[in-house]
Amino acid sequence: MRSFSAKNIIITGGEPTIVPHIEYLLEQFKQAGYFLAIETNGLKSVPPQIDYIATSPKRLYSHKYGKQCIAFANEVRIVVDENILPFCELIEQKFRLNITIFPLVK
After folding, report:
1. What is d(CA 40, CA 50) in angstroms, rounded to the nearest whole number?
2. Per-residue model confidence as pLDDT tens digits over 3-33
3. What single DSSP character describes residue 49?
4. Distance from first CA to last CA of the chain, Å, rounded?
5. Is 98 exposed, middle or buried (0-12, 13-18, 19+ CB in 10 A)?
């Protein structure tokens, strides 16, 4: 990793918060001076080494979301389908977020 000029690492998945021993890897990166970001579904809390949290909550798991990761996210990305508006409203109410929905232009 040190041979690369990048100083930012984005941990993504599958779901990176369920990877065994990920905190050890993150600690090695953190000690080497990297800025660490994670992309997660927001169901589990993120390791303390993470500097930036991007969540992508899934409508399928909407009943499972508490105040874990989403409340502390720096960025929330929601995958859009025809039934997404009620889910966005739920997330907005549950976490008191301001959500702006932009249509995808084809």
Report:
1. 12
2. 778 899 999 988 999 999 999 999 999 999 9
3. T
4. 38
5. exposed
The DSSP call for residue 64 is G
> What distance separates the 2 farthest-apart alpha carbons in the chain?
47
pLDDT in tens, 58-104: 767 767 766 655 678 888 777 766 676 777 777 667 666 565 655 55
Domains and CATH numbers, the chain: 8-95 (3.20.20.70)
47 token code pair: 């390791």
pTM: 0.71
**91, 70 in Cβ contact below 8 A?**
yes
